[in-house]
C-alpha cells in the first residue's frame, strides 16, 4: 500500500522552517554586508527624490551575497512611495538584448502583448513609457551571460540622451572579477560610474551566517555547534560560497529526517557533502554556454584517460603530473567541437573559458615552471571527472535530439 501525504506530513522533522535553510531566502538582516548595502542604497536614493540614480557595477565570486544584498535593498526601496520603478532580470534566462528589452517592456506595461514586436518597436514603447517621468532601474544579474552585451548596455545607458523626462539606470551584477575589462570602452565608461567588490566570507563569518540560519530554520538543540563549524570550514576552504554552506546544512537536515535522527552532527554534514557537490556541479555546468561545457568535457575525458593509464602502469605520479597541459586540453576541445558541430573558438577565447571555469570552482590552474614542457598553464578538474562527463554528455544529447 502506498503511503499517504498525511503519513508523510505527520513524521517528525528537525526543521522548524525549512524555507529559511535555502540559498534563495533573504533574511531581514544580512550579516557582514552592512557597508555594501549602505552603498547600494546611497546609489539608488536619488530616484526617490525624482532624480536619476547613477549606474552601478557589482562583482565578486559566487555566494558572496551580491544578489541577496541588491534584492534586500530593492525591497526597502519599493517601500517608499515614488514614481521610480525597478526590474530584476536574471540574464541566464534573458540572455540577449531583445529578451531583456522585452522583459523591461512587460514590467513597465503588464498588459502589453509583446509577442511579434521587433526590437525597435519594443524599444520605442519602453522609451515612451519611461519618458512620462519614470526613473527606471534595470538590475541585470549575471549580465555577462548576455550574448550581445555591449549592444544592450549601449542601448540602455544611451537611452537617457533621448528621454524628455525620467531616466534609465543599470545595476550590473557578475561573478567575473575581470569582466569589465572585456566591455567596449563606451559601455565601460557609462556603466562603471559606481563600482564595488564583494569579498568572499571568512570561516568565522560563514559560521555566524550558518548559526543565524540554524536558529531560524531548525528546532532548538538540533544542530551541533561542531556541525555548523564543519560546514562553514568546508565552504570557506573550498569555495568561499555561503550558498554552498547553506546547501550543506539543508542536505544534512534532510538526511537526519531520512534516518529519523533528532540531531545534526559532523557525520550528517560529511554525508551531505558528496550529494551537495554533485548538485552544485550539475547546476553550474548545466547553465554554462556550449563552448565552456566542451572545454570542461575535454578536461574530464583527458583526466579519466590519465587515471586509467596510471592504474594500468601502477604509477604514482608527482603532484604536477596530476594536471593536464593547456595544449592537450585545447586539442581535445577542438576534436569535441567538430564532433558536436560547433565552430572551434580561437585560443584567446579558450583562455577566457578556462578563466571562467576556474572562477566557478570547476577547475584549478597553475603556471608550470620552466622545464621540459616550457612554461604552460596546467589544469586540474575540481569535481569527479566521471560525474562531469555524464552531466555534459547528457546535456548535449538533449540539445542534439531537439
Give the neighbour order of strands across the main sheet.
2-3-4-1-5
Unreliable residue runs: 310-320
- The top level CATH class name of the largest domain: Alpha Beta
Report the radius of gyration as a whole number of Å.
24 Å
Shape: globular
Strand content: 5-15%
N-to-C terminal Cα separation, in Å?
A: 39 Å
Oligomeric status: single chain
Number of domains: 3
**Average pLDDT taken over every residue:** 87
Q: By helix and strand content, what is the structural category?
A: alpha/beta
CATH superfamily of the largest domain: P-loop containing nucleotide triphosphate hydrolases
Which architecture of the largest domain does the CATH hierarchy give at level 2? 3-Layer(aba) Sandwich
Number of helices: 15
* Helical proportion, percent range: 40-55%
Largest sheet: 5 strands, parallel
3D architecture notes:
The structure is a single chain. It is built from 15 helices and 8 strands. The strands form 2 sheets. The protein has a 5-stranded parallel beta sheet with strand order 2-3-4-1-5, with helices on both faces. Helix 6 (149-158) links the parallel strand 3 and strand 4. The protein has 402 residues and is α/β, with parallel strands linked by helices. The protein is globular. It has 3 domains: 34-198, 3-Layer(aba) Sandwich (Rossmann fold), CATH 3.40.50.300; 202-283, Orthogonal Bundle (Helicase, Ruva Protein, domain 3), CATH 1.10.8; 288-401, Orthogonal Bundle (Arc Repressor Mutant, subunit A).
